[in-house]
Amino acid sequence: MFTPALPVLFILLWSSAFISAKYGLPDAGPFSFLLTRFVIVFLLFGAIAAALRRPWPRGPMLANLLFVGVLMHGFYLGGVFFAIAQGMPAGLSALIVSTQPVLTAALGVRLLGESPAPAQWLGIALGAVGVVLVLWPRLGSDVPLTGLAACIVSLLAITFGTIWQKRHGGGMDLLSGNAMQALAAALFYGVIVLVFEPYRVDWTVEFSLAMGWLILAVSLGAVSILMVLIKRGSAAATTSLFFLVPPASAIMAWMAFGEELGQLGLAGLGITTAGVWLVNRRAGDTLERR
């Protein structure tokens, strides 16, 4: 049976990652931060999987999981971090990446054989409009081409990673599968740190708290929930939840840092919520009938 609480919990946990990163990034290089995170995640998931004697992926399944790990945890996160480091406004970076549900729905028709209903297409459009309204007042005017290119790479990576996971990751064990995806990301960032960025991490209280939350709440919690949602729902319905991440992050930033949301942002939050509800309503009905 589909659990309605899972999407809500996913949105809250995934959105909190941006707040945690803001706390921790001053004390580490962006790729050093991500390398450290995914090494610890691999060791944690691997130890739990071994202790519980969970099956480890082999052959094509292992190759698929490693590929998705590089896409979703490597190119996606690395691209966003790199874009912001290049001077790309954080709001604009989030806006570009948050168009993922539109691209996923369009590609899902061809690659997954999914056919969103007219109400779902309307919901996708409303979600995109709502995200623009939330982020528009916070956008900057300077857009570095390298940052823009990195955001586009991130958008493509999370889109194709979601579709690939939907097609080839259905039989994955959450513990051992996530361990392998974290290993792929750690190796990816290890190469980047070795070649491009000297390793820099200062284990301050702020960094330690941020890292702990990102590992336990986001990597252990949100990513596992995402894998469940991808497996049990359509790609379009699952990725539509990402529309709610920028508004939820904006609310958290207001609570944590006093960043204003404004009337336009509140209107956008309402529109986005309605859009996601439209997209997921038919998907939820389908799951209940199974």
Task: Give a description of the structure.
By secondary structure, the protein is mostly helical. Helix content is 78%, strand content 0%. The chain has one domain. The C terminus is likely disordered.
Quantity of strands, as a count = 0
Cα shape: globular
Q: Fraction of residues in helices? A: over 70%
Structural class: mainly alpha
| Overall residue-averaged pLDDT value | 79
What Rg do the Cα atoms give?
18 Å
Counting copies of identical and different chains, the oligomeric state is single chain
Distance between the termini: 8 Å
Q: Could you give a short account of the major beta sheet?
A: none
What is the domain total for the residues? 1
Number of helices: 12
Give the percentage of residues in beta strands.
under 5%
Outline the low-pLDDT stretches: 283-290
Could you give a short description of this structure?
The protein has 290 residues and is mostly helical.
Give descriptors for this structure.
about 290 residues, disordered C terminus, mainly alpha
Layout of secondary structure:
Elements: H1 5-24, H2 30-51, H3 59-85, H4 90-97, H5 100-111, H6 118-135, H7 145-168, H8 174-195, H9 205-232, H10 235-239, H11 245-257, H12 262-289
Helix pairs in contact: 1-9, 1-11, 2-8, 2-9, 3-7, 3-8, 5-7, 6-12
